[in-house]
Amino acid sequence: MPLRFPRPVTVAAAIGLVAAWSVLAVAPAQADQIRQSEWWLSALQITQAQRTATGSGVTIALLDTGVDSSQPDLAGSIIPGQQDFTHSGEKPGSQFYGVHGTAMASLIVGHGHGPGDSEGILGVAPGARLLSVRVGLDSGDPLLTDSSVTSMLPAAIAAGIRYAVNSGAQVIDLPLDPGQSPNNLVASMAPIPVPSPGQLPSPLVLAQQAAAGGSAAEQSAVAYALSRGVVLVAPAGDNNAQTDAPNFPADYPGVISVGAFDTNIMKAPFSSHQSYVTLTAAGSGVTAAVPAGYTQVSTTAAASAIVTGIVALIKSVYPELTPVQVTEALTSSTAIRPAGGMLDGSGHGTADAAKALAAAAAIAKPSPVRAGAGAVSRQLPVAPPVPFVDRGLGTKLERDAQISGALLAVLLLPIGVYLLIRRRRVRSRKLARELARERDQAVRPAYVPAGASRGDQMLEYFASSPAQPLSMSSSGAGARPAAGRAGTLGEPADSRPAEDTAPRRLGQIGRLPLTPMARASTVRPPKVSGTPPWEPAPKPDTELPWATSQSAALARRAPVIPVAPFSPQNLPAPTPSSLWDVADARSGPAEGPGIEVGQPADDGSGPEASRPIYVWNPSASTETFPKLAGESD
User: Fold this and answer.
1) Which helix (H) or strand (E) holds 108?
2) Per-residue pLDDT for 85 more than 60?
3) Which of 271, 387, 583, 614 is deepest in the core (most CB within 10 A)?
4) pLDDT at 88
């Protein structure tokens, strides 16, 4: 039986499915607006590189203006206990704390948020952990005009480098030179105004001059980090449109200096054109997360953050590589290389994360060395760490599973109610049919022998249980079963039961039940005597078991003859008590009336004339046969 749902249930289920699909289809479109704006993920083949590594097991130190660890895209990725070497007294959550640093941190270790982390910024190394070290001031901070504060920033950078190395950082992202336009999220294209003769420089210019040029402490800290195997990455500088002065700490030997290009892979106009630039990366028109949301940044600091993430991918797979080897992997695998291999401001070309990982694999593979001559076998690379698994992924999957389960339950609820109601209806109908069947069986007679054939009567006889035979009186017109207990033929008629005294219509013989008798094996047929040819067989002295009911059936088939009012001449012929009497009546006059019930005596000339029964005598001649009664020549 096909399953059909009522129209209200079908409509409700359809509306629920449409609503669910609408929500699922619209939500990703809204969530992907920020993610789709990260054009550099595909341009630098970062997405492909993340299939191999995500930065798991690597600690990155970010020397900047601090990080807001409550940003959803950074939750759980920032190491607690941020150190502040600016001595500014500003705390996390204030207006000028962690704006620029939060943007750079999202480009490095951002992991997104929302269902499946599909919303927000996805950094280059989302599996790495970040150590935030405050060594600079955000743009607009009033302390930038205080030369006593800005003059201490190079020393703060040096202290921050040593702190990061001692804290176990494998990669350090260095800040911009404090002497440049101080950490603007959008690099200033206008040159710094030069004071006229006799005019004193502004406090901002004095502060920048006091912080510019680096320091011996800063250079010493850089050398210390390199000696400990820490890779240093720094922005090339944002002052190309101004003086294009060297930027420190980017200009220190051993530091990977990064310039910026835009969405067209064209060098940004503000990016430094100095010869110390190692390579370039995306730095103009880059979307990043800030404490209050998201913004577009254009600075070489963004390009430095992206390359820092690529270094973290390399170190997570090949942690034994030295800073020189990591630099070689980056510079030998650039996607767009300048003519001649190097160009001021572009270095070795644009970074490529996937190619850099492949180059690092080739560098980490032990090269074949001839045995002897004091050759020392090289240790095999350390096994890569366990792949990164987002710490909030399990919770998010459970939440998504709960939402999906609730939606499924809402959709299946009307279906379940309908099935329950239909099941009850089916049970009710089945019960009604069973009750009707029981009523029919209660009123239906167990046995209706009228019109049954001779074979049916014989089958019923042999299938019936043993019982005493009933007898009929052979005398009189109204022969009835014997009274009292079931007797044999010839018992007196006065012993018939009282319930069988109901009057019968003239010419009608009542139906008698089949009378079981002894087993067939105990009845022996009579012997036939005589000489051939054919001769009549003697009349049997016993009745067949079904003869009584057969004679009654013959009598019932006889038509009823209407007669005149009662008179002795109108008495009906006696009812034959056996088949043998019927045969005698058809064969001619015999003892008694010998008339078949309801018909005149047969004179042996009609088509229904009965013939005697003959038996075969083998010793007689069979060439001719006597003419039988009723036959004509």
Assistant:
1) helix 99-109
2) yes
3) 271
4) 86
For 219-278, the pLDDT digits (tens) are: 999 999 999 999 999 999 998 888 888 999 999 999 999 999 999 999 999 999 999 999
**Is the model's pLDDT at 371 over the cut of 90?**
no
Name the phi and psi angles at 307, rounded to 5. -65, -35
Q: Which residues on adjacent β-strands are paired with residue 132?
A: 62
* CA angle, residues 581, 586, 592, in degrees to nearest 5: 50
Retrieve residue 369's tokens: 């060395």
DSSP strand pairing (614-615 vs 535-536): antiparallel
| Alpha carbons 153 and 155: distance in angstroms, whole number | 5
Residue 310 banded pLDDT, cuts 50, 70, 90: very high
Using the structure block, give the residue that is written with the tokens 């209660």: 442
| Predicted confidence (pLDDT) per residue in 136-155, tens digit | 999 888 888 888 888 889 99
Look at 507 and 20; give whichever has higher pLDDT. 20
Both tokens of 590, joined, read: 């015999």
Instruction: For 291-309, give one letter per residue: b (16+ CB within 10 A) or e.
Output: beebeebbbbbbbbbbbbb
Segment among 101-115, 208-222, 243-257, 420-434 with least mean pLDDT: 208-222
**Rounded to 5 degrees, what angle do the CA atoms 535, 540, 545 make?**
135
Is residue 408 left, alpha or beta, with left meaning phi > 0 and alpha meaning psi from -120 to 50?
alpha
Q: Which 8-state DSSP code applies to residue 481?
A: B
400: CB partners within 8 A, 6+ apart:
115, 116
Q: State yes or no: pLDDT of 114 exceeds 50.
A: yes
**Most confident by average pLDDT, 80-89, 104-113, 504-513, 588-597:** 104-113
Residue 382 CB neighbours (<10 A): 11
Helix axes 353-364, 300-317, angle to 10 degrees: 40
269, two tokens: 């106009």
CA distance 457 to 549: 9
Q: Before 533, cis peptide (omega within 30)? A: yes
Structure tokens at 13: 């289920």
> Between the CA atoms of 510, 514, 517 and 520, what dihedral angle is there, to the nearest 10 degrees?
130
Distance CA 475, CA 278 (A): 141
- Smallest CA-to-CA distance from 169 within 326, 46, 57 is with 57
Counting every residue, how long is the chain? Answer: 633
Tens-place pLDDT, residues 121-140: 999 999 999 999 999 999 88
Which structure tokens are listed for 352?
Answer: 């490529």
Interior angle at CA 114, CA 108 and CA 119, nearest 5: 55
Please provide the DSSP assignment of 175-198 as one string.
---TTSSTT-SB---SPPPPPPTT
